[in-house]
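Would you be willing to look carefully at the protein I have copied below?

:::
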Amino acid sequence: MYFCSQIIKYHYAMIQIPIESMNLMMLNVGYATHHADWNWQKVSSPFIRIFYIMEGEAMLHLPDKDVRLKPGYMYIIPAFVIHSYECHGVFKLYYIHMYEGFKNEVGMQETFELPTEVWAGNSVKRLFEYVSTQHPDAMLPGPDPKSYDTSAQTSDYVKRYMNMALWEKMELRGAMLIIMSHFIREAKPRIWTSDERMKRVLKHIHEHIADEIDLTELAGVATVTKTYFIQLFKQEFAQTPVQYINRKKVERAQLLLFTSDCSVKEVAYKLGFSDHSYFIRLFRKMAGITPQEYRRQLKL
């Protein structure tokens, strides 16, 4: 088992992630047994899912690959990633859902290429067992994501966590950091992390995600010409600055739709869109459904 201090001190060369930026909050934890009934399609949530497999096998279908889930390993599904499950027999696992909430920092998923699968062993099994035993009220109400992946349910989970005693929050935070440390240990730094210009640019984007962000402004942050900045950004991130900004705005919109009662128009204005019709089109292009449909699904 790895101690919390290891993840605090963990770094790659010039890269360090402040522990304060890992604003993790536990929503759910528990143990589940399935009998060929873990078969959910196109699941997507604004929280991180981590599984520790105890027995049996299943398939996890991600946008870019299919992963066979095996006993003794842990698997992570980042927030907002659309995925599906497939199970044809007995399948037993521990699970934990972590919510990062609203944050403007460049997080670990931006800084590192996290592995989907890591070997965990008995130490992690004991940790999951302990946390699950200590928090039986944090178990999911049912196996179907529609039974728990709703704004009302998540609001209740957040309130439950916030009402915990300080020592309980500290204990849970330590457990979550230990679990995450297994993935960080195997992670690879993204190429841009060695480029101070790109670090400044991403920091600026995250801090001003609610504003209208101008490319000339970002080029100034990087201290290069606008044309070269666009080329450099695309070379480092395999997408244009506008595509990256729009993706981050849509992710923040999903959080707002999930956690607030703001209208779609208000969400658009809060994220720097002067034309909410354009925002709706962009949201649908990136999320596959309109903001209204997304919110409707959350309230089912």
The chain has twelve helices and twelve strands.
